[in-house]
Amino acid sequence: MKNKISSRLVKIGLVIVGLFIFLKLISSCTHSKDAFQIVRSIQVTKGNLDVKITAMGTVKPYNRVEIKPPIAGRVEEVLVKEGDAVKQGQIVAWMSSVERAALLDAARAQGDAAFKRWQEAYKPAPMLAPLDGMIIVRAVEPGQTVSTADPVVVISDKLIIEALVDETDLSFIALEQKTEIRLDAYPEDVFWGKVDHITYESQLVNNVNVYGVDIVPDKILSAFRSGMTADVTFIVKERKNILLVPSEAVSEWPKNLKKPEGMEFAVYRKEFGGKLAPVPIRIGESDGRMTEILNGVTEGMRIEIVKKKQQALSTNPFSAFGARKNERKPQS
Prior knowledge:
The protein is of the alpha+beta class. The chain has four helices and 21 strands. The strands form four sheets. The chain has a six-stranded antiparallel beta barrel. Strand 18 (265-270) and strand 19 form a beta hairpin.
């Protein structure tokens, strides 16, 4: 009789142990349901992703050349205005030396005939454009007296944008890199260019090391003016027709579950009965807002954006820390 009772007790004990193990397994499988709450449901979609870096820039001449008179004297005539295109060797102004200016002034007092005679006999000096370019500054007008240190006009061969890039972003910048340009003066217009030069010496701006990056626009339009402020966006990577999910949908793989090989991250989806289950994924590029999924999901799959539940805080007056000690005020 005792043997029968003992055998029955052993069987009951085994059933209890088995039930306990089963409940633990169920608890483990539903951990994500207990630990997370659903924010919203979304579908995996296909689209394009651009990884970008932004910086502030300024429009400036690539080569800025000041044309100064070879001798001191008076500017007799300026043949160009701002915005004019000029060729190398083109005459941009005529000027008289101090002696010629004094002689012509004295001859003018003697009459038109004397003035014309001396004007023909004593020719003015031409000022020539040293390169092809555009007049960006007309600094003097006819009749003004200038020294050899005073620029008469300023020529730029082409306008570029110089952007200041933080040293932490410099590794993402490369020559010939595609760049988007928006001028503050024309915020609705988009211009495109390529990186032409990256300086080798840094500048200290607001206690931050930055490097100058020159961007040559694909097309110089009349909207460009030297000194304009620009927002520059460097296109680091372009990914086309890829699987995308909002970055907030991507979580680390749960630590209590065995990690699939090569999978560091997970998205969550509902299974039968409404339980949340992690789906192992491998991610690619991200722009911060959207993340590329390399494998683990398919287009159109419905997944859940989740967040960790706030654990209920004990209000038991007999708890080890006393009543309502860790209570937080609800956020408005």
